[in-house]
Structures are given as C-alpha cells and as structure tokens.
C-alpha cells in the first residue's frame, strides 16, 4: 500500500469533470441536510440542478456508489449511502490476495491489528459487560463449542460473537473497525492450511473465557483470554 | 454507518454484469501475478479477453479505480493500483461532515480511535526508537515549536511527525491505519473553533515529549505524552 502519494488526495482514476460532479453531489447532500437512506434526485434532475453533463454525473455516481456515499437501488432510484468500511475491506482483502506468497505477511499484519485493538479495548469491553446478562451471546458460545467438538469451524458464530461483544461499547467506530478487520481476516485466512481439531476447540474455549472475564470485571483476565484467542491462529501462521 | 447489511458483501450500486466484470478483472490480475504499478491491458483488450461488453468493463474499471484497486492514468492507460486506505478516509470524512451538529460525535470517535491506537502502539514505537538518531524528525519538532510560538498551527509538520514516528515500526498496516485516521481527523477538525495559542504550544511540546520518551525507552512516559498530546483537542471538543 502506498500512502505516500496522499492518503486523502481526491479519488484517482476519474476525469476532472467527474471529480467536479462528485464534489457537487456531495455538496448537494450536505447543503440539503440529507441523511443516510434519504432519496436523491434522479440522474436527469441532478444534471439540471448541478449544470453537469449526463456522462459526468453518471461517472460520479458510480464512484460515490463504490465508496458507499451514494446507494443505487436498481429500479428504485438513488439514496444517500450508509457510509461503511466495506471499501477498505475490499481493498485490504485484494491486497492480501495479491501477495499470498509473501510469507502471509498481509494476514499476519491484519491479525496483529485485530489483537492490538482487542487488547486496547479490554477496559471498555469490561466496563460495558460487567454484570450484563445477554442470553444471545451465551447461545453463540454454546454453538461454537458444540461445532468445535465435532471438529467443525464456526465463522458465522465468530462474527456474531465479536459483533455482540462490541455492541454495548459507546464508540461504535471501534466496532466498525474491528468488524472490517474481522472480514479482511476471514476472507484472507482460507489461504492457510485447515485448522487442527484442538485449535478449533481452544479457539471456542477462548471466546467463553473472554466473555466470562468481561462479565466478572477482570480486565487482566480478559487481556489474557484475547491473547489465547489468537494463539491457535498465530501457531498456524508459524507453521505455514 | 450501517455494518449490519454486510461489511464484506459485494459492492452495492453496480449492475450484475459490472460486478461480474469487476470479479473477472480482479481474477485476471491475480492469475497473471501482476503487482501494484504493473500495466493492465487496454479496455478493448480486456473486453475481448474477458468476453464482456465495453459498458460493463468501463463501469467495473470505474468502481475498481474508486477502490484504488485499479489506477487510471489518463493518456497512459490502466495499472494495478497501490491499494490504499483513501476510500475509507473519503467515507469517514463524509460521514463526519454529514452530521456536524451531532455534538461533534464523529470527530470525538475518530480522536478516541487515534488515542487508543497511539497508546496501544507505545511498546512498538519505543522499541523502534530507543537510541535511534534521525535529525529529520528533530527538525520537524523544532519547526512545530517555532510555529507554535508565533501562534500558528502546523498541520504539515504534524503529519510528517506521526508518519516518521511509525515508519520504523515493522507492521506498516498500523502506519496506514494511523495516517488514515489522522487524515479523517484533520479534514473534520475545521468544524471546531480555532485552537487557542496555549493549546498550540502545548500540542507542540507534547510531540517533543513523545519523541524523547520513545528514545529514552520509557513506555510509561510515552503513554503519558500521548495523552497530553490529545489533551488540548479534548478540551476544545468539550468547549464546542
């Protein structure tokens, strides 16, 4: 990844007219005080309102749709997008796939970012979960353990667990960031050899330990469970 | 931001044919073992090779360009992109602008993510900087302090400082992530009132304290300097 050429420069690969149309559409959304999900004018109305050509508006809309700033529902029109981390996920997953032979370096980096964030959020997660009852997350952990006993992996349950764990943390940007790196990880990890049955069981147990530590208000035990949670994966990366 | 509808679902707002063309172009890059910066075939050649219509290929290329997976240099052709965090930055900045009245919540969240990451990276930064000489970063801190004494802000120096500080940390994904949040922060912060002269001076001093703590191998002092570094901003957010 090359951040040197400008992390926040305007979008590359678009014509000057389309970039200008993009900025006009963004300004239009802001000045009209529209919010995510609100409908946008039709393409023809936008061309007229902004005084831009149809091809510029069309190109701008496609770029804004790729960035989740505009959402195009075919047959229903255009809407203000929900703004997500999906563009970053697509970029990072592709980067991971681009250099698989690079000693799994991309995957290692993603796993390290996840572990660092999980550890850094220990205090916030424990504060949010101390004494909290939520049978849904217990169900998810039960399912994980049952699948692990049969030697099966549990991607869906894993996603639900991490999402539920961060749901009561007030700063939801952390949750979005963690989910984005979870997705990059999950979409890149199939390059590795299949996990061993004992790794699957230990990973399931570590989830239960994270939840128990959070509920009992034990920040240090939570951090240890986070490290244990990534241990089987770290071992698989060492073997690969 | 709505991650519920699928953090890693395929790109919304594109037609089925264009999505299929996008996947074909990604597969072509992977199967040809191309790397960032390598040239891609022309649009006509891609249509022929992939057996897709010109309009689908053109729409796919625009979307991939918005995600920095393909780079279009007008008059020079198409190249494999460098894959960056710019798409996430554009999304988050727009999100920040979309709800400025929301008690600066977006900006607060971004600042908290930066502080959490800076604190979590204390050990890695100290390990990378202990005893390290690099006159360029001292120059940057000198410039910051000189500007601060005159009551001037120092965005360029701030960016250089944080980039240089993370440059020797082995996992460069952290550097990209930090620079992305730095950019979101910097592009969103003008919504706040101008900083007070003493805040500018204190922020400059905190940068010097971070560098000194890292060089002397003092992780705890580094963490304290990080907190002091965000203090003036935290106060400005409280006042706003």
Please sum up the structure shown.
Two copies of one chain form a homodimer. The first copy, chain A, is mostly helical. Chain A has a two-stranded antiparallel ribbon with strand order 1-2.
Structure description:
2 copies of one chain form a homodimer. Helices cover 66% and strands 3% of the residues of chain A. Chain A is mainly alpha-helical and 240 residues long. The first copy, chain A, has 2 domains: 16-80, Orthogonal Bundle (Arc Repressor Mutant, subunit A); 86-239, Up-down Bundle (Four Helix Bundle (Hemerythrin (Met), subunit A)). The first copy, chain A, has a two-stranded antiparallel ribbon. The longest helix of chain A has 21 residues, at 219-239. The model of chain A is unreliable at 1-13 (pLDDT under 50). The interface between A and B is large, with 73 and 74 residues. Chains A, B: It comes from Actinomyces ruminicola. Chains A, B: Residues 15-83 form the HTH gntR-type domain. Chains A, B: GO terms for molecular function: DNA binding; DNA-binding transcription factor activity.
């Amino acid at each position: 990844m090359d951040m040197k050429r400008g992390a926040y420069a305007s979008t590359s690969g678009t014509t000057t007219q389309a970039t200008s149309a993009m900025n006009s559409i963004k300004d239009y959304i802001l000045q009209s005080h529209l919010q995510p999900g609100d409908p946008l004018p039709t393409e023809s109305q936008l061309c007229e309102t902004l005084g831009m050509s149809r091809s510029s508006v069309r190109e701008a809309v496609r770029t804004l749709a790729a960035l989740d700033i505009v959402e195009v529902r075919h047959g229903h029109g255009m809407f203000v997008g929900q703004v997500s981390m999906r563009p970053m996920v697509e970029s990072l997953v592709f980067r991971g796939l681009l250099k698989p032979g690079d000693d799994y370096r991309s995957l290692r980096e993603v796993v390290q970012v996840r572990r660092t964030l999980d550890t850094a959020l220990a205090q916030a997660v424990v504060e949010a979960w101390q004494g909290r009852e939520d049978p849904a997350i217990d169900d998810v952990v039960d399912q994980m353990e049952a699948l692990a006993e049969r030697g099966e992996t549990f991607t869906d349950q894993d996603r639900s667990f991490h999402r539920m764990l961060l749901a009561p943390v007030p700063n939801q940007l952390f949750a979005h960031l963690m989910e984005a790196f979870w997705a990059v990880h999950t979409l890149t990890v199939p390059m590795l050899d299949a996990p061993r049955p004992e790794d699957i069981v230990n990973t399931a147990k570590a989830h239960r330990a994270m939840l128990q530590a959070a509920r009992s208000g034990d920040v240090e035990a939570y951090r240890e469970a986070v490290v244990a949670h990534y241990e089987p994966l770290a071992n698989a990366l060492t073997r690969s």
